[in-house]
């Protein structure tokens, strides 16, 4: 779907980094126009919607005209015969109008929801394909507002504003024509008042959008404060600062109160305005219409029809402004969504696969810098050769580039120079999905999803082609010392994560480790995976891991000497490059910088000895 | 595995199921609403007055149209006398103006009451959450605290913003119009009002079905949002584990469920709106036929017929709106219920009725035969006796679940003991106001939360009146001044997103500076250094010596390097003290748990 949308003109001149979450893209009709492909499957529905709406206008105009005939019949001409047939005609037209409304809405509800759902599906698919370099700059909340608020605003445009923009203009023109034909001086008055009303209601709506945004922002600010106070409640309590944060919250709430009152006042004016228009219209029509009737220029039935028709114009005219403002909002939303569709992944998949992977991992003269900070290299001229089945620990101070190094292996990021190879094949030549099957990572910050424990564990296994057997799951749980997962209230079917059972940091890490083990990788990356475990559990995990690592290539980012002991060799990472490689004891004895990182305070050793 | 069983089972599902579908403002929500509105009794009467005037003006207009046609036109026909018409048009104009003024006044005034109530709700709920004990927060979880203050308050906001005005206007219009129709012409009025039962039936059907449809939609959209946010937030794991196809499958499923739920609820409107329109149109046709005959027989005038048409138009419009508000009322009622539930909670550690003074705390902490259990009959501490003299640095060591953190929570009065007493300088903690206690006892945990704001604000958190010199004095003493000065804006650097720019060690130093500046007599550190790497930890150890000088400290230690600065070590197991002595003594003894732990640690180094 995304490939079928044409490129935005001028895109190449934009920031090479792609869209910026904090700067809204330029919006215009072309943004909405580009989304038209989503309407294509619903062409028939659109035709029906427009036809029924047009027919609806016809009926809406016809009814007052029949009423006019009905009133003029018995009263002006003293005829009783036409009452019943005309009345029945009004009845039939009334039923027809209700049916047309029903049919249009029935078709429309299905079509617009399908459009919205399709756009949301494509948006999600595209976002999943976008690389870490994109996601590290966009918070999930910003993306969510595109998937919900912006899509709803586009849905409202396609289902409502687009249709009524057309229909209302048509209705206003047609009805005004009828009014002019009926009694032109009054018709002229009506025609002249329409334009300023449209303009005023559009201006109101725009102001309203501005003030609503302000209220939303301040609500967001207040929510942040509430969130902070909830998360940090223990800090606040232990410093006895409840009153302080409460006062701060109250100040912000008071500000919101003031802004909300601005909004109340504005919308009060707006709604009053909208309600007063028809009454003013009635005043004018009554005055001139009654004079017209009195002088015989108009029949009583025409006057009643005139008032009814004129009142039927009130909504189309005043809503025109709202619809235009809605269209503008939809354009902005469309631009915000296209901005994501136009971003392409800079991680391009290769085509090669390795049939019998041995797991020989090599970093060759690797340079790396994060996109957006190309002048601040994180890794430079890094060389490391890890033999099949070998385990290497990477040790380095905070900020030396350890996590960046591990992110290169599953191609979450690409090197800026040099190459990473597996069994001699450049990662960029490999099929990405295949590569990520070869490599499994247990991250320092274990991500658990609000799903069953089983679903979380089998994240790296395809349920169709390569499902994990129960025995495999049990084994992985054993390795990671994550047996607690079996004792959850519903066993492995228990939902964990944000929306489920709360787990401790250590438990989460062990599940993440079990997940990595369960995907049976050729290369296992452990990014400081054991930091939240207590010494006892850590020892048990390490013992079990040793068995797994025998025939798996491993990279372990480590902070503690105990973790380093898992590895065959240790690589010392300093300022983005590897300065020493060797065995733990060897480095401990010969490299002061290494001792500095892994040995504790020397004064304690003196105190003890 | 199908697309449906990925979600797993959780306790919340059962709670949700038990939630009532139909809600009314009774019980907790009703009491709370009445209480909140009590200060506005007079304002409410004024509002009622205004709204009556407004509706009277509005409803008079079609009647005046009738007068215009029936009594304004004949004089023109007779002798071109425009005066009666001018008088009537003048009255219409007056009514229009009155309506406009009253309408505006009503919207602003009722908006003010609504916003005032909302402010009071926010204020009350926030303060109450602050007053509730950490024990409550442990159970309730921050997620629920947040949603009480966001989505629930928003639901009330929604009701006040849209529902209130609509409901009042709709109700008055219905009653007023019905009365006027009967007044204009009893027979025609009765015929017109025959539509009443149909209207009632359709509206009632819609109200009931939309309540459950709305609830399903809310549930489904929550699924979409959770799955979306988690996929994007955890995109690193998603991509690293090639999760995309399965995620897409799940997302398509929840996305489609949301579509289906929306469709159900849209389709209700699809039936409802034309349904009301149908009833309206049929009524108009019937009124016209019957009215036509009556007019033919001279029983009604053209003006009456015109007024009927105008009134009927007003009659059906609010019916369409009134049902839309119903969902707003539903969720507002549910929200008020939950908020009332929270406000009913009593703080677990109440303020003393007759507080003791503690002018210059020395910092002696004593546990006197303390029992404690989080859950009944599963004691964590039993008969704990412990005296920490003023100025001592005590390290608590032991396995997970030994009761170390419980000791810290009791010493800071996050919890009260089940039996026995915790004393500060000989005064029971339960006799101290929280202001006095918090000035004397401060705890630093490993979460070391940094608030949004500047670094200086964060350090000043415990003592907002501290000058910049005080702040820098603290950071210099802790060796944190250098890295803070090196930041882009120095002390004024904004701590974005929980201190993302700072390393764990630096954040910990800021947290220590915060505690140091607060200058408590007793400082409790709960595994405050466990997340640090060795160089950062070394940095923090240095700082700790400065922080701890001259005050009582209880350090809960995960690592032995922390213990090194302690005067005294206590090893705990199953809620009891098993070893007690200076670190050197315990190590020198060559036996016992501490000595074993120490040896194992030395082994790991070499």
TrEMBL record, chain A:
Organism domain of life: Bacteria
A GO CC annotation given for this chain: plasma membrane
Membrane topology of the entry: Multi-pass membrane protein
Residues spanning the membrane: 44-71, 83-103, 157-180, 186-204, 270-291, 303-327
Gene3D superfamilies (UniProt xref): ABC transporter type 1, transmembrane domain, P-loop containing nucleotide triphosphate hydrolases
Compartments, as annotated in UniProt: Cell membrane
Alphabetized PROSITE patterns for the sequence: ABC_TM1F (PS50929), ABC_TRANSPORTER_1 (PS00211), ABC_TRANSPORTER_2 (PS50893)
Keywords tagged on the record: ATP-binding, Cell membrane, Membrane, Nucleotide-binding, Transmembrane, Transmembrane helix, Transport
Residue ranges annotated for the ABC transmembrane type-1 domain, each copy included: 47-329
Gene Ontology MF annotations: ABC-type oligopeptide transporter activity; ATP binding; ATP hydrolysis activity
SUPFAM superfamilies tied to this protein: ABC transporter transmembrane region, P-loop containing nucleoside triphosphate hydrolases
Pfam family, one: ABC_membrane
Domain (ABC transporter) ranges: 361-600
Residues covered by region (Disordered): 1-26
CDD domains membership: ABC_6TM_Rv0194_D1_like (cd18543)
Protein name: ABC transporter ATP-binding protein
Organism the protein comes from: Nocardioides immobilis
Automatic annotation (TrEMBL), chain B:
GO MF annotation: an example: ATP hydrolysis activity
Matching SMART domains: AAA
InterPro entries to which the protein is assigned, alphabetical: AAA+_ATPase (IPR003593), ABC1_TM_dom (IPR011527), ABC1_TM_sf (IPR036640), ABC_transporter-like_ATP-bd (IPR003439), ABC_transporter-like_CS (IPR017871), P-loop_NTPase (IPR027417), Type_1_exporter (IPR039421)
Domain named ABC transporter: residues: 365-599
UniProt entry keywords in alphabetical sequence: ATP-binding, Cell membrane, Membrane, Nucleotide-binding, Transmembrane, Transmembrane helix, Transport
Subcellular location, record wording: Cell membrane
Entry-linked Pfam families: ABC_membrane, ABC_tran
Segments traversing the membrane: 42-65, 85-102, 166-184, 190-206, 268-288, 294-312
Domain ABC transmembrane type-1 positions: 45-331
UniProt topology in membrane: Multi-pass membrane protein
GO cellular component terms given for this protein: plasma membrane
Record flagged with keyword ATP-binding: yes
Keyword Heme: no
Domain of life: Bacteria
PROSITE patterns noted in UniProt: ABC_TM1F (PS50929), ABC_TRANSPORTER_1 (PS00211), ABC_TRANSPORTER_2 (PS50893)
Family: Belongs to the ABC transporter superfamily. Lipid exporter (TC 3.A.1.106) family.
Protein name: ABC transporter ATP-binding protein
Organism: Nocardioides immobilis
């Amino acid at each position: 779907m995304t490939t079928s949308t044409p490129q935005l003109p001028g895109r190449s001149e934009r920031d090479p980094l792609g869209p910026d979450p904090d700067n809204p893209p330029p919006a215009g009709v072309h943004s909405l126009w580009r989304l038209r492909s989503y309407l294509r499957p619903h062409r028939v529905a659109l035709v029906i919607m427009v036809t029924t709406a047009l027919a609806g206008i016809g009926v809406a105009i016809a009814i007052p005209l029949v009423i006019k005939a009905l009133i003029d019949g018995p009263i002006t001409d003293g005829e009783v015969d036409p009452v019943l047939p005309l009345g029945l005609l009004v009845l039939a037209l009334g039923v027809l109008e209700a049916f047309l409304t029903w049919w249009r809405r029935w078709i429309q509800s299905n079509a617009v929801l399908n459009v919205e759902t399709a756009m949301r599906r494509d948006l999600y698919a595209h976002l999943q394909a976008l690389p870490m370099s994109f996601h590290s700059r966009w918070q999930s909340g910003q993306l969510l507002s595109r998937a919900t608020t912006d899509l709803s605003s586009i849905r409202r445009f396609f289902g409502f504003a687009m249709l009524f923009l057309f229909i209302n203009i048509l209705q206003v023109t047609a009805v005004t024509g009828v009014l002019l034909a009926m009694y032109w001086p009054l018709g002229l008055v009506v025609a002249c008042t329409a334009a300023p009303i449209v303009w005023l209601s559009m201006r109101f709506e725009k102001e309203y959008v501005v003030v609503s945004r302000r209220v939303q922002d301040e609500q967001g600010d207040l929510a942040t404060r509430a969130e902070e106070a909830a998360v940090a409640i223990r800090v606040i309590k232990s410093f006895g600062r409840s009153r302080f944060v409460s006062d701060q919250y109250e100040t912000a709430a008071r500000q919101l109160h003031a802004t909300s009152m601005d909004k109340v006042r504005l919308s009060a004016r707006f709604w009053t305005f909208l309600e007063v228009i028809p009454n003013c219209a009635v005043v004018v029509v009554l005055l001139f219409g009654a004079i017209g009737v009195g002088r015989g220029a108009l029949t009583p039935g025409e006057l009643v029809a005139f008032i009814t028709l004129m009142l039927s114009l009130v909504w189309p005219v005043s809503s025109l402004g709202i619809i235009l403002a809605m269209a503008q909002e939809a354009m902005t939303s469309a631009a915000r969504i296209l901005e994501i569709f136009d971003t392409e992944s800079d991680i391009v998949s290769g085509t090669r696969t390795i049939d019998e992977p041995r797991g020989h991992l090599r970093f060759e003269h690797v340079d790396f810098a994060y996109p957006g900070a190309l002048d601040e290299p994180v890794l430079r001229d890094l060389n490391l050769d890890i033999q099949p089945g070998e385990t290497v620990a990477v040790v380095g101070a905070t900020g030396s580039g350890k996590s960046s190094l591990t992110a290169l292996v599953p191609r979450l990021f690409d090197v800026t120079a040099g190459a990473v190879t597996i069994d001699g094949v450049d990662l960029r030549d490999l099929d990405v999905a295949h590569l990520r099957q070869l490599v499994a990572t247990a991250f320092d910050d274990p991500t658990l999803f609000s799903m069953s424990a089983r679903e979380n564990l089998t994240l790296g296994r395809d349920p169709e082609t390569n499902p994990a057997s129960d025995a495999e799951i049990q084994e992985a749980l054993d390795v990671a010392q994550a047996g607690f997962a079996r004792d959850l209230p519903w066993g492995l079917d228990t939902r964990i994560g944000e929306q489920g059972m709360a787990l401790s940091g250590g438990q989460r890490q062990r599940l993440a480790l079990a997940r990595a083990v369960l995907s049976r990788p050729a290369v296992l990356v452990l990014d400081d995976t054991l930091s939240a475990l207590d010494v006892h559990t850590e020892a048990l995990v390490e013992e079990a891991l040793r068995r797994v690592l025998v025939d798996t290539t491993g990279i372990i980012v480590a902070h503690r000497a105990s973790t380093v002991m898992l590895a065959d060799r240790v690589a010392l990472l300093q300022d983005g490059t590897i300065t020493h490689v060797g065995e733990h004891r060897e480095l401990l004895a010969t490299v002061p910088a290494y001792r500095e990182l892994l040995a504790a305070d020397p004064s304690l050793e003196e105190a003890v000895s | 595995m199908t697309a449906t069983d990925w979600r797993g089972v959780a306790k919340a599902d059962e709670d949700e199921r038990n939630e009532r579908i139909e809600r009314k403002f009774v019980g907790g929500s009703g009491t709370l609403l009445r209480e909140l509105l009590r200060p506005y009794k007079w304002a409410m009467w004024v509002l009622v007055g205004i709204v009556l005037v407004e509706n009277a003006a509005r409803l008079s207009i079609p009647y005046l149209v009738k007068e215009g046609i029936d009594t304004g036109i004949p004089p023109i026909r007779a002798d071109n006398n425009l005066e009666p018409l001018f008088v009537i048009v003048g009255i219409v104009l007056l009514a229009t103006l009155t309506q406009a003024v009253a309408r505006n006044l009503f919207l602003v005034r009722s908006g003010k009451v609504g916003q005032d109530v909302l402010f009071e709700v926010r204020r009350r709920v926030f303060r109450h959450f602050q007053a509730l004990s950490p024990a409550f927060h442990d159970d309730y979880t921050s997620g629920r605290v947040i949603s009480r203050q966001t989505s629930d308050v928003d639901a009330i906001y929604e009701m006040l913003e849209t529902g209130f005005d609509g409901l009042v206007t709709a109700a008055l219009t219905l009653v007023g119009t019905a009365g006027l129709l009967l007044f204009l012409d009893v027979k025609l009025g009765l015929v017109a009002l025959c539509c009443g039962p149909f209207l009632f039936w359709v509206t009632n059907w819609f109200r009931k079905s939309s309540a459950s449809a709305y609830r399903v939609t809310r549930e489904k959209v929550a699924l979409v949002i959770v799955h979306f946010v988690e996929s994007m937030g955890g995109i690193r794991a998603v991509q690293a584990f090639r999760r995309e196809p399965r995620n897409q499958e799940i997302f398509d499923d929840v996305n489609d469920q949301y579509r289906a739920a929306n469709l159900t609820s849209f389709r209700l409107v699809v039936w409802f709106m034309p349904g009301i329109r149908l009833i309206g149109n049929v009524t108009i046709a019937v009124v016209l036929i019957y009215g036509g005959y009556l007019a033919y027989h001279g029983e009604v005038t053209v003006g009456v017929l015109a007024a009927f048409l105008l009134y009927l138009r007003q009659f059906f419009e609010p019916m369409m709106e009134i049902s839309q508000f119903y969902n707003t009322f539903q969720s507002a009622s549910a929200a008020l219920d939950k908020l009332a539930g929270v406000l009913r909670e009593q703080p677990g550690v109440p303020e003393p009725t007759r507080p003791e003074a503690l002018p210059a705390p020395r910092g002696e902490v004593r546990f006197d035969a303390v029992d404690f259990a989080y859950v009944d009959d599963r004691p964590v501490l039993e008969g704990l006796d412990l005296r920490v003299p003023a100025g001592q640095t005590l390290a608590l060591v032991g396995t997970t679940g030994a009761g170390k953190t419980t000791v810290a929570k009791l010493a800071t009065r996050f919890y009260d003991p089940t039996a026995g007493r915790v004393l500060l300088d000989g005064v029971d903690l339960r006799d101290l106001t929280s202001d006095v206690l918090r000035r004397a006892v401060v705890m630093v945990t490993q979460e070391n939360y940094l608030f949004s704001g500047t670094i200086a604000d964060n350090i000043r958190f415990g003592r907002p009146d501290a000058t910049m010199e005080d702040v820098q004095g603290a950071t210099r003493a802790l060796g944190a001044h250098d890295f803070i000065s090196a930041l882009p804006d120095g002390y004024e650097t904004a701590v974005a997103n929980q201190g993302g720019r700072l390393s764990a060690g630096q954040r910990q130093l800021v947290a220590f500076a915060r505690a140091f500046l607060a200058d408590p007599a007793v400082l409790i550190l709960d595994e405050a250094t466990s997340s640090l790497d060795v160089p950062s930890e070394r940095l923090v150890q240095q700082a700790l010596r400065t922080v701890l000088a001259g005050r009582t400290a209880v350090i809960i230690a995960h690592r032995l390097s922390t213990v090194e600065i302690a005067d005294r070590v206590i090893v705990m197991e199953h809620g009891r003290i098993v070893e007690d002595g200076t670190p050197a003594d315990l190590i020198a003894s060559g036996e016992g748990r501490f000595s074993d732990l120490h040896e194992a640690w030395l082994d790991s180094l070499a």
